[in-house]
Amino acid sequence: MKSINTAVETNKIIRFFQDLGTLTRIYLLLSFITFSVVFIIGALMHLQNKISIAPLSTINGTAATVPTTVFLDMMTTQIPVLEEAPTSTLSQKNISKFLFQILSGINPNNPKSLVALAIPGMERETPSLLYGGDAASSISPVEYNPPANVFQQGEIPSTTEESPPPVASEPTPINQLDENKGSKSVFIYHSHNRESWIPELTKVTNPDLAFDATKNVTLLGKRMKESFDKLGISATHSNKDYPSSVKDFTYPKSYQYSKLTVKEAFAANPKLSYLFDIHRDSQGRSKTTVTINKKDYAQIYFVVGEKNPNWEKNMEFAKKIHDKINEKYPGISRGIYGKNSNGNGEYNQSFSPNSSLIEIGGVENTLVESYRTIDILVEIIADVLKDAEKV
C-alpha cells in the first residue's frame, strides 16, 4: 500500500511539471541551479574562514618544494638554448608523484610518511622555505628525537666541571643604543634546553646523544642576555631544565613545557615584547658553518610555526632580522622556514608577533663559533628594536 501511495504522489509531481509551460520549467530549473551554486560557494567561503591555510598551499611554500630540475625543464619549453638537457623530469610519472605528495602530504617514495600521518609525534615533514634562501640549493633545518633513555639519570654525564665552557675570543663589537631605547623587554628561553655539541662533549660521537645537563644551548641564551644587558635592553633568560623538573618528562612534549615557562614569564612581566626560543640544529658542520673574514660562524635558521593563525607577522619579524644580518654578514642566515607538523607547528609564537625560534649552528659546531653568531645576532636584533622604537 505504501509503495502505491508513493507512486501516486510521484505521478502527481510529474503531471504538475508537464502542465507547466516550457518557460516556467526553464525558470524553475535555472532558479534551482542558481540556489545550488550560491549555497556551495557560501559553504566553501565558510570553510575557508574556519581553516587556517598553511604556507605550503601558497606560492611561498609550494615553490620551495618544487625541485630545481622541474623549473629548468619548464624553462626549456620556452628557451631553445636549454634543450640540451639530457633528461626531462616532466614525465607523467614524476608529475603524478609530485601532485600526489602536495595534495596528500604522503611521499610515494617513502611509505613511512603514511604511518607518520597517523601517529602523533612521528611526523617529520620537510620544512618549507618561506623566505631568504635559494629553493634550488636550500638545506632545511633538521630535528631528530633523541633515544628515550638519553635523559635518564646517568645517561648524560656533565662535562662542564672538567672543561669550562669557552668564551668567544674577540667578541664582535656592538653599537650602544640610546639610553631611552630599552623600554621593550626581551625573553630568552629554550624548549630543548639540553641540546649540546659533539666537540664540546667527552666520549660522545653520536649526534643523537649530543645532549648535556649543563653544557648546552642555555649557555647561548645566557650570552645573549648579557649582550642585551650591555646595551641597556631589558632581557630575561630562562635556563629551566625540563628533564629534571618535569615529572614523567617526554621529549615530544617539550613545547608544552616551554609554553608554561612563557606564560610564567608574562605573568611576571606583562610588558614582554620579544620572545626568542634558542636551539641548535641536528645537521653536520658542513651544512651549518660559514667563514667570514677567516673566522667560522655557526649559521642561523629561523623557524615559523604555520599553525599559528598569525604566522605571517612572525615571518615578517624574522625577515627583518634575516635581511639585516645577511646584509652585514652574508651567509650567516640560511633563511626562514615554515613548519606545520602534527606534533608542534605553533612553537609558542602566538604569544607575540615578535616571537621567533632560532637554530644557532648544528650538532658539530663549537661553542666559540656559536658565541660569535650570538654576538652579531644581538647586534642586529638591537638595530631592529631601535627601528621599532622610531616607528
Please characterize this protein's 3D structure.
With 391 residues, the protein is of the alpha/beta class. The chain has 3 domains: 49 residues; 64 residues, no CATH class; 243 residues, Aminopeptidase (3-Layer(aba) Sandwich). Helix content is 40%, strand content 12%. The chain has 11 helices and 9 strands. The chain has a 7-stranded mixed sheet, with helices on both faces. A hairpin with a 2-residue loop joins strand 5 and strand 6. Helix 7 crosses helix 11 and helix 10 packs across helix 11. It is elongated and about 90 Å long. The protein starts with a helix and ends with a helix. About 11% of the residues have low confidence.
Under the CATH scheme, which architecture of the largest domain would be assigned? Answer: 3-Layer(aba) Sandwich
What is the rounded distance between the termini? 81 Å
Q: Could you state the order of secondary-structure elements as H and E? A: HHHHHHEEHEHHEEEEHEEH
Share in helix: 40-55%
Residue runs with pLDDT of under 50 for 5 or more positions:
52-59, 120-124, 153-182
CA-based gyration radius: 28 Å
Order of strands in the sheet with most strands: 1-8-7-9-4-2-3
Q: Give the averaged pLDDT, no decimals.
A: 77
Number of separate strands: 9
Task: State which percent range the strand residues make up.
Answer: 5-15%
**Estimated structural class:** alpha/beta
- From the spread of the alpha carbons, the general shape counts as elongated
Question: How is the biggest beta sheet arranged?
Answer: 7 strands, mixed
CATH topology of the largest domain, what is it called?
Answer: Aminopeptidase
How large is the count of helical segments? 11
**The CATH fourth-level homologous superfamily of the largest domain:** Zn-dependent exopeptidases
CATH class of the largest domain: Alpha Beta
- Total domain modules: 3
